Recover the amino acids of this structure.
């Protein structure tokens, strides 16, 4: 016996089929009955413009957890970059980190799954970025690395709002090439450019390699192994927890959230999201400065 689900806006139709292929039962069910996991993007979604979390969002996530719904981060950030937020949201156990390259259990402090960038790809990224005078940020499960002479210059790469984060979490090294030749555990590269034109030049140079690319922020290129995305990471987390994607609600605001939002049963766009992202979602909530995440969670996850 097995079940088939068809989604129509905010309702599902469940078909129960027996072993001989005969229809046994159908029923209509709303999103609140289906959602078991909420995946939340960080920057522009969970985080306000000032990079803090709205206190009402904390309250609403706790309420959803009280009703048996698991909340998880789904972010391009690394584990060390989440430490302060985990202190605020201590109920969150799991994270899809590094844009899907790492699935992490914060309670047990261990990776459930990860996909590394090969050493050939790492060296190719460095060469292509150097031609465009770009800033490269390599990330592993536990650490991240940048050139020492660039760590205080994020404003030159349209990343001024992340200056404090980099100073607190990234390891400055004098020779990034030499450091990366020693590493076999790089999971992601963030490459920051002076302009979108420089970013496109680098993207074109790397396009033949087995890599996945996301254009984010004003002029950043996020690079992971081929096939890695927030959608693939969320699918893997669902497998680990025994939760199908149709029972997942995802909330996001940017182009790097599109794959995740297209893959889940319930897709929520932030009020500050662009029109392309809003068009693929089931519902548009408030913006990130006005508890958009919490309002969506209360609407769809709390009776």
């Amino acid at each position: 016996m097995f079940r088939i689900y068809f989604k129509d806006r905010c309702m599902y139709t469940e078909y129960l089929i027996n072993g001989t292929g005969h229809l046994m039962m159908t029923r209509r069910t709303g999103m609140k009955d289906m959602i078991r996991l909420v995946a939340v993007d960080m920057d522009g979604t969970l985080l306000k413009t000032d990079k803090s979390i709205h206190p009402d969002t904390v309250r609403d996530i706790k309420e959803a957890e009280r009703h048996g719904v698991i909340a998880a981060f789904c972010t391009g950030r690394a584990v060390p970059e989440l430490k302060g937020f985990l202190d605020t949201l201590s109920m969150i156990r799991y994270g899809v980190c590094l844009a899907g390259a790492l699935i992490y259990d914060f309670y047990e402090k261990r990776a459930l799954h990860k996909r590394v960038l090969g050493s050939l790809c790492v060296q190719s990224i460095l060469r292509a970025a150097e031609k465009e005078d770009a800033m490269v940020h390599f990330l592993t499960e536990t650490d991240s690395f940048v050139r020492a002479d660039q760590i205080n210059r994020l404003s030159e790469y349209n990343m001024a709002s992340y200056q404090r984060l980099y100073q607190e979490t990234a390891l400055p090294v004098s020779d990034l090439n030499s450091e990366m030749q020693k590493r076999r555990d790089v999971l992601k590269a963030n490459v920051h450019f002076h302009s979108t034109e420089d970013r496109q030049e680098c993207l074109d140079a790397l396009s033949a390699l087995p890599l996945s690319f996301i254009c984010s922020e004003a002029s950043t290129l996020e690079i992971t192994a081929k096939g890695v995305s927030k959608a693939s990471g969320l699918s893997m987390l669902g497998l680990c927890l025994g939760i199908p994607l149709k029972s997942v609600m995802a909330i996001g605001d940017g182009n790097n959230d599109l794959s995740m939002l297209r893959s889940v049963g319930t897709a929520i766009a932030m009020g500050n999201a662009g029109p392309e992202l809003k068009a693929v979602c089931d519902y548009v909530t408030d913006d990130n400065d006005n508890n958009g995440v919490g309002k969506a969670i209360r609407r769809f996850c709390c009776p």
Q: What stands out?
A: The first strand starts at residue 2 and ends at 8.
